[in-house]
Structures are given as C-alpha cells and as structure tokens.
Write a structure and sequence with these properties.
- There is one protein chain.
- The protein is mainly beta.
- About 15% of the residues lie in helices and about 50% in strands.
- It contains four helices and twelve strands; from the N terminus they run αβββββββββααββαβ.
- Strands 1-2-3-4-5-6-7-8-9-10-11-12 form a twelve-stranded antiparallel beta barrel.
C-alpha cells in the first residue's frame, strides 16, 4: 500500500479501537487516496480494518493491508515486536505518467517496531524492509484521543516517513532505461535516502452499540525532499479520507 493508505489505516484503526470498546475487531471501509504518492488524481481504494491479538500474536491492517506479528509487553506502557506484511505495489498503468516505468510488483515486507501508549497518547517507531530489493522505511507516528464523550471519540495525529536509497529509487526514481521507455518523456532521476513525507490526520468514531461502530478519517499528506522533487510527483501535498464500519468480538 502507498504511504497515503498507511496514514488512512493508522488513523482509522486508532479511532476504531475506541469505537469498538474491545481489543479485537474487524471491519471494512472505502478510502479516497491519490493514485500513487505524488499523483494529481484520486482513486477509491478498499481499506481493511483488522485488529486482533491473542497473547503475543497479533494481526493488524495498520500498514494498509493485513499483516501478522508478535508483540511483547516491556512494561510502563511500552511494547515492542516484529511484523510480516504485504505491499500491493504500483502498476504502471495506474496513471499516464507512470507508463514505461514498469510495475512495482506486490511483495512481502517485514520489520520491527516499538510503541509507547500512556493513556490517550500513542507513539510508535518502526522500520519496515521490503523484499525484491525495494528498500526500507522508518516511520515515526504519534496520536492523541483529544475528545471522548459517550459513544464519540476524536483522535488526532501525524507521522513522518524516512526512506533508504533503494526505497526512494523504487517509488520516486527514474533510471536511464525507464526514462528511455517513458511515454511521458521523464528525465532520469536518482533520489537519495532521506525524509520522504509527513502526514496529519483526524479521526472520528461513533459506537453504534456494543458490537458495531463507524469511523471516519480525514488528513493531509505531503512529500518532502527528493520525493517531492521527483519527476513523477505531479502534486506534493494531497488530502485523503476514509469511511468505514467495525464489528467488535
């Protein structure tokens, strides 16, 4: 999934946890996200909402697609773990400007994280490595439940993403051979590792009853640095949103 969909899912899951009033829930939503990071146009994307844990094992869709992992409680609201997930890639026919660059294939990713969750506040630091030589990213995120009353809960947060050189080249670079095939006449571009984007979001959840809940997320994501300067980046700052329902069990 793209970094926009990751931000959508992170905000939605945090709010849905309040809506569900239970540790475990499943759900589904529809998100409005850019066709790819830096795209001018939008598309509608399915957003799975999954949060399940049993002992150290967990399954979650915080990265935009269901993943599994192991998590250990370190005490004092601190936990750490490892995770295995999937990224659906980026087909070159998703937008005219991408034609000739080739597909970024669906691939597995794996990584580790640490989370601090005192009360209404949550902060996470994670590193995710993609297979197929697609590189890795470090993500720093924070959120706070700013308002809770009855069945309502509002959560606000944000995050930053850093990408290594392989990740930046995969998603924002243009090799000489890709430039030669580019139908849009893109120039070669080799980005360096560095900060690639940041996001802010707000999510509102509503607990319909003890089992069912609804959640809405709105936010803005911006590319920065070499990602922003990429020839495929038509627009650096784009809004995103999602609506969904959850079922607690």
């Amino acid at each position: 999934m793209t970094l926009f969909q990751r931000a959508v899912c992170a905000g939605a899951l945090l709010a849905a946890a309040g809506a569900a009033h239970a540790q475990n829930f499943i759900g589904a939503g529809a998100g409005i996200v850019p066709k790819y990071p830096g795209a001018n146009d939008y598309r509608v994307a399915p957003v799975p909402l999954i949060n399940y844990s049993n002992g150290m094992f967990f399954a979650s869709s915080v990265d935009g697609f269901p993943g599994i992992g192991l998590r250990a409680n370190l005490g004092n609201d601190l936990s750490a773990g490892v995770r295995l997930g999937v990224n659906l890639g980026r087909p070159e026919d998703r937008a005219p400007i991408l034609r000739g660059l080739g597909d970024i294939d669906a691939h597995a990713n794996y990584g580790a994280f640490i989370a601090w969750t005192p009360g209404r506040f949550r902060a996470t630091l994670s590193y995710t490595q993609a297979t197929k030589g697609y590189g890795g990213t470090a993500n720093l995120g924070a959120s706070y439940a700013v308002w809770q009353q009855g069945p309502h809960r509002v959560t606000a947060g944000g995050g930053l993403e850093w990408g290594n050189s392989d990740y930046m080249q995969t998603w924002f670079g243009v090799t000489p051979s890709q430039a030669a095939r580019s139908e849009a006449g893109l120039r070669p571009y080799q980005p360096s590792s560095g900060l690639s984007g940041g996001s802010v979001f707000a999510s509102w959840s509503y607990r319909i009853n003890e089992r069912w809940g609804a959640v809405t997320t709105l936010g803005v994501r911006s590319l920065v640095g070499d990602a922003k300067d990429s020839p495929i980046a038509e627009r650096a700052t784009r809004a995103f949103g999602m609506v969904g329902v959850t079922y607690a069990f």
